[in-house]
Amino acid sequence: MDDLKKLNHRIWINNLLFISFSNFIIFGLFFYAFLNKILPINDLLIIFIIILTSTNILISILQINNTLKPLKTLWQIIIRLNSNTTIPMPQIDDLKYGKDIVLNLNNQIVQLSNVTSQINNDLILKQSNLNNNLIAKNLPLPLIITDNNEIITYVNKAFAQYIGLPAKDIIGKSLYTILNMSFTSEDTFDNWLKTVKLNSAVASKNWERVRLIIEDNHPTRQFDLAAFYNQDNPANIETILVLFDHTKQYSQDDQAISFVALSVHELRTPLTLLRGYIEVLEEELKQTLNPQLKNFLNKMDATAQQLTAFVNNILNVARIDDDQLELKLQAENWPDILKNAINDIRLRAKVRGITIQYEIEENLPTVGVDRISIYEVISNIIDNAIKYSGRSNVINIHSYINKQNLIETSIQDFGLGINNNILPNLFTKFYRDHHNRAQIGGTGLGLYLCKAIISAHGGNIWVTSKINQGTTFYFTLLPYDGLTKEMKDNNLEQITKTAHGWIKNHSLYRR
Amino acid sequence: MEQNLKSKKILIIEDESFISELYCRSLNKAGYETDTVIDGVEALEKAQTNDYDLILLDLMVPNLTGIEILRKLKNPVITPNLKSKIIITTNLEERDDVKKDIEKQADGYIVKANLTPSELVDFIRTIN
Fold first, then answer.
1. Total domains in the fold of chain A
2. Which DSSP helix (H) or strand (E) runs through A253?
3. What is the widest separation between alpha-carbon atoms in chain B?
4. For chain B, which domains are there?
């Protein structure tokens, strides 16, 4: 760099000296002419100015040419080398001068790149030293960083507190020794990390309801885990994990769910037996029982079925409320499903003297439904119709394509009817008609469940009713083609939905 | 057809003896041969004899859970060349993710309370 400065300096000194010298001579001549009165003063001034200006311009041009000469020389060589023309070899001196300039430029570039890489290194060093990183240090969420061998290289204060060990006892240990995590499925953190190490440069993933088993009688902790992996990070910060503690919430959920699950189990075992024995009695005594006893046996069977359906309702409502009801939508033949459900419920209607009639339009398109859940919907609405039929003895079921090209099903009874002002509340959990509460049993879970399931299918459910004339429930389902279009429109391979709305996009499972 | 069915052997792993009694009755009437076992460890040993065409596996059995039995039976290192189909029979409601994991490994999954013994027989026919 100094060399180039000197060079420029030298060129400018040369220029100045040369210009000063020539001006000095012109001034000398002018004074000589003035003193000897060779010309009148006015003419002399004009001539003087013209000579001075032109000389200076000439000198400058010459000097610029001189300065550019080495570059011109370089250019000449390049042309010569490239085209092998007859341009003459440049002067050796000019070449040396040109070489100096190029070398200088080169030196400057090398120096510049050295400085850049130094700054870069400093920056990485600063970043890697997370102990100085205020964000990592003060993050109120437990944070762990591991190197490429899953050895912990950094934990923040929040993590040390969470796990109840000082940071110095954690750093340098294997992640799996410190965090003894158990996951809800085979899709674990270590399986994920193994895969991404082989296949990805950068990856991130979340897990819900991870359990952490801490020794020394600490209660099990439960959290959501988020992990970020970047192969290109400095070696000591390859994987970053953040924990979101939900111990309190999840253990409460677990207790609630396990209570429902346990109660359901306890109810189902005697129900299994009851239904089994009723079946045996029906088979064995078919021929010998008198009509009244046969009728009692049928009623027993219908009641046991009803109880089974109710137990399933309790469970499904608990799952919907916990956002755990998952629907697997598949292409199904709607008349088959509908007839199958009607056949199962027929006995329950029959023992109350009610006939179920149905009319299913021919050539209905294939529907996209979850077989088990939609069965619950049909069975709940028919059970409801049976309950509210009063003295009427027919339930009409009709299935057809509506104006919106959806598959619409109506279930009509001719019984007590519902007051119009309470219709909007009908699909609310635990809601029951005040007028009939004393006479008709029920929990107010069935229609709530129907609404949640139908909504998750992308359909609608509604009701019309007239007091003492009866009630009709309607619900719509999407043709399977419409469902696949929905997937395509959203550029999804599969769809997942919960009873509370769209949430995930990775399978045809809907919650 | 009947002749063919008679040769089918079913292992019923079930800790509620009233239920296995009912299942045995229906299955025998339908022409199947049945064996019943209550204890999980014993159940695994029996299943590993590879003597059965079908195994009805309850998830709640003493000493070794149904899920553990299922994993051991479906692991070709522990149980090579298992020919038996496995149907999970349970009344306990598993979380959906656990259930999906079980369904992947088993050939069928039924809630006992939702089927009568004869409906179970119908279901088994569809598995064969």
1. 3
2. helix A247-285
3. 41
4. 2-118 (3.40.50.2300)
Q: How far is A287 from chain B (nearest CA, A)?
A: 18
State the average pLDDT over residues A167-171: 87
Structure-token pair, residue A369 = 């439904």
Q: CA A170, CA A427: separation in Å to the nearest integer? A: 53
A494: Cβ–Cβ under 8 A, 6 or more apart, which residues?
Answer: A487, A505, A506, A507, A508, A509
Provide the ipTM.
0.85
Question: What confidence tier does B65 reach under pLDDT thresholds 50, 70, 90?
Answer: confident
Q: Is the pLDDT of residue A110 over 90?
A: no
Cβ of B18 within 8 Å of Cβ of A273? The answer is yes
User: A341 and A467 in one domain?
Assistant: yes
Rg of chain A (C-alpha set): 45
Q: In chain B, which residue ranges form alpha helices assigned H by DSSP?
A: 2-6, 17-29, 40-48, 66-74, 96-105, 117-127
Q: Does A311 touch chain B (CB under 8 A)?
A: yes
Report the alpha-carbon distance of residue A19 to residue A14 in Å, rounded.
9
Could you tell me the two tokens for A259? 């209570």
Quick check: A304 pLDDT over 80? Answer: yes
| Contacts B60 to A, Cβ<8 Å | 265
CA A108 to chain centre: 48
Output the domain CATH number for residue A240.
3.30.450.20
Tokens describing residue A366: 């294939």
Instruction: Single out the residue in A245, A270, A286 at which a domain terminates.
Output: A245
pLDDT at position A29 over 70: yes
Same domain flag for A363 and A479:
yes
Q: What is the mean pLDDT of residues B110-124?
A: 92
Contacts of A269 in chain B (CB under 8 A): 16, 19, 91, 112-113
Residue in A closest to B24 by C-alpha: A276
Q: Which two tokens stand for residue A99?
A: 């070489």
